Structures are given as C-alpha cells and as structure tokens.
Amino acid sequence: MINTLRPSKKHVRSLPAAVSESGVVGPEPPLKVCVLAACPFPANHGTPGSIRELVEATAERGHEVHVVTYHIGEELPLRNVHLHRIPDWTGERTVKVGPTKYRPLYDFQMVLKTLQVLRRNKVDLIHAHGYEAALVAACCHPFVRKPIVYSAHNAMGDELASYNFFRSKRMANGLAWLLDRTVPRIGDRCIPHSVNLQEFLYARGLEKRTEAVLNFGVNFDAMPVGDRTALRQAFNLTDEPVILYSGVIDKFQRLDLLLEAMVHVLPRFPRAKLLLLTNVPNAENEAILREHARALGIEDNVMMMVPRSLDDGLKLLSMCDLAVVPRPKAPGFPIKLLNYLAAKRPCVMYASSCSRLSHGEHVWLASEDTPKSLGDALVQVLKDDALRNRIAEGGHQFVRARHDRRAAAAQLCNVYLDLLRTTRRWNDIAARPARVVPNIEQSDELEAFDGESKEMQANAYA
C-alpha cells in the first residue's frame, strides 16, 4: 500500500543600475510599496513562497513593504515586512490551492483592506502578484490612482479547468480565455517570471510594458541541509533509488503522468521508490493518486509524506537520488525546481516546461510530453552516476548565479523606480534621504550570461 508518513528578446535579467567602481549601487530613495497577495500567505508552496522571498529581500534594501493578504496563512517567519490581513468572516482556516466558494468574498475584502493600507501609509505603488491581486488593484485604482506593477506567475488557460471548481469545463475555459486576455493589461508594467510567461505577455500585445524576466529568488544562506543517511534510516530506506516530487498535488501538476512514468522505471529499477512530498494536504487528490497507483500495480513503490515545516520539507530533499517536475508546458519557473537545484539534487523535467536551463548541463529533459518519455529520462539519469553528479552540480551553479533573492530584489526595485520616475510624485520621492545599497557579488558566469543566453534557450528545447 502507499505509505502516508507524517514525521532572447528581453528575457535576460537586468542587473542593478548605477553601480559605481567600488561595487556599490547608487543611492536608492526608500519606497513605500503595497504588495497584494490574494492567497493564503505566507505559505509553503509556489506563488506564496516566491512572494515571501521577494518582499523580505525588498525590505532588506531599506524599503517599507506592506503585504495585503487573506486571513489564512502558515506560521512562517516574515522579516521586516508589514502584514495586513483581511478580517476572518468565514472561519476558514485551511490553506487551499485554487478557487473556492469563499474567494470572491476574500477578494472583495482585499479591496477594502488595500484602500485602507494605501491611504494610511501613503504608499507609492501597488505590486499585484497574480490574477486576483491584479483585479483587486484595478478596483482600487479609481480611488487612489497609484501605479500598478503586475507580476505574471501563471496563465489561466492551462490551469483553471483542472481544479474542477466549475461544473462546466467549457465555462472554466471560457473564463480562463477572458482572464488571460484582460488581466495582464491592468499593470502599468508587467513582470514575467519565466521566458514562457514573457512570450505569453508578448503574444497579447504587451511587449512595450513587459519587463525583463525576473527570476524567483532564494536565500541560499538560509537553505537547510538534511542528513541523507539519517533521513533514509528514519523512513526504513536503504540503498533503493528514490525519485522525489515536492509540491502541491492538485491535478494541474500532472502527477498522473509521473505515476505512469514509474511503470517504465520499475522494470529497470524494481526497488525504486517514488516519494511524493506534499506541502499542502489535499485528501481528495491524495485518494485519486492512491487509486491510480493501485490500478497501475505500483502502490508498494509509492510513498507520501507531509513535512511538519518548511525547513523539514527542504531537508527531506536530501533523501532523493533525483527530483522531478512532471508538469508539461508549465508557464512559469516552478519554485519546486528552484528548491531542487538549490539543494543540489539532479532534476528531470519535460522539455516543454524548460525555461533557460540546458539539457545535460543543468537538468535532464524528456523530449515528449508522455509518461514513457519521462520514464525513459528517469531511467537514463538513475543508471548514470556521472550524469547525476554533473547535472546536480551544473543546476546548482546555475541557480547560485541567477536566483539569489538579493539580485531579484535589486532588479525589482529598478522596475519600481523606473515606473515612479514617470509620475508627478517622483520629485518628492527622489528627495527622500537615500541609502546606499551594497551590490551583491556577481559571478563571472552571471556576467557572461548575456552572451550565452540565446544559445542556452535553444539548448533547452533540443
């Protein structure tokens, strides 16, 4: 049985402007930013996790950051950031991914709370993360006239219908089509978080207001490392190969493809285990996955774990021999992928989801969006120790050079400043006592990234 255990255009990231010979970024006036997170926050998955890293790193640069969010969130540290929650009118306490019957109410409450925060704190601009946050910003705009930055984390076309919230798939797809063509236009500036999302914005005629890709960032200094041997012993594992997935288990993540891929792995590695590390419990989808594994006859090779905390979940990555992103055509750069590479785990994913990474250098890519192709890729990496070590090290160096959250915050603050320079309030903002922000050390690899980026993007889809 399954064990459930509970212990090329502008796609290159810009670097900070105004860097002096001493390696210091020029004076940066302190800003007041209202960040909208229309979701449970903070939370240990995807979008909320990436927002948390960005707002903390922005606050570290001396800016005043206010986050308006739902009344729901996990007990995670949030340093130097002002958190404003909507009132609890429903009693709902469980973190859920995707639409629920209460979310329209929460978003209406977000409008009221955001207006309150904007007026009380004399905020300079609004940064809306995702679709619902952008709609909240649009509702506030007639009353406060603040510039809006929109962060594109996903597209609705390949996601909304998968939640099974709407009785009619046709209705869900129609709403997704409408949202994809209208919501990104709310932003005065649009920030894509992957090359795929940048092309998505370009295709909707938003190239002039679309910024360079902003990489999700991670705090490498705070990344916990687990004891591989001790963790394996704790879960009665010895030397069997462990393939790991970490993240939510909603249908759009396509864990069905991963289970079916295991059918092609087990003939070559009959003792292999698939470890599903679930950071947001979902009883309905867990039951579906259990039944699917039984139908495939692989239930004895599948394990499910729910980590007690974010740190525990990151430590558990050390158990695996390789990690996997099973979603084809993913529109963004998955946070799970960033965590895999930061933890120096070799990673397998579909080529159709790959953004910037090179096949055989940073990750191993499955060429076709099928279970067999994914299974063959998993086998190839499992049987080759040298390959595993090479892509683990290459992937780690890639994110080290390009995904430090301090660099992400520096680029984001440049977007804020460029937008505010076009407003009537810029002279007042620029007159504020500025602080000099130390520039992070950039590797030679990062400095050479402009020259190699086109080749890398081509390799990613080879």
For this entry, give a set of tags.
7-stranded parallel beta sheet, 40% helix, Glyco_trans_4-like_N, 15 strands, Rossmann fold, 16 helices, glycosyltransferase activity, disordered C terminus, alpha/beta, Glyco_trans_1, disordered N terminus, Glycosyltransferase subfamily 4-like N-terminal domain-containing protein
* CATH superfamily annotation of the largest domain: Glycogen Phosphorylase B
The count of β-strands is 15
Average residue pLDDT = 86
Rg over alpha carbons: 22 Å
Tell the overall outline.
Answer: globular
Structural classification: alpha/beta
For the record, the CATH architecture of the largest domain stands as 3-Layer(aba) Sandwich
Intertermini distance: 39 Å
Name the quaternary structure.
single chain
Helical content stands at 40-55%
The tally of domains stands at 2
Query: What percent of residues are in strands?
Result: 5-15%
CATH class of the largest domain: Alpha Beta
Describe, in plain words, how this protein is organized in 3D.
- The chain is an alpha/beta fold and 462 residues long.
- It has 2 domains: 10-217 and 404-439, Rossmann fold (3-Layer(aba) Sandwich); 221-401, Glycogen Phosphorylase B (Rossmann fold).
- It is 40% helix and 15% strand.
- The protein contains 16 helices and 15 strands.
- It has helices at 46-60, 103-121, 131-144, 169-182, 195-203, 228-234, 255-265, 283-296, 310-316, 335-342, 371-382, 385-402, 405-420, 426-430, 444-447, 449-460; strands at 3-5, 24-28, 32-37, 64-69, 82-85, 125-129, 148-152, 189-192, 242-247, 273-278, 302-305, 322-325, 347-350, 364-366, 435-438.
- It has a 7-stranded parallel sheet, with helices on both faces.
- Helix 10 packs across helix 12.
- The protein starts with a strand and ends with a helix.
- The relative contact order is 0.15.
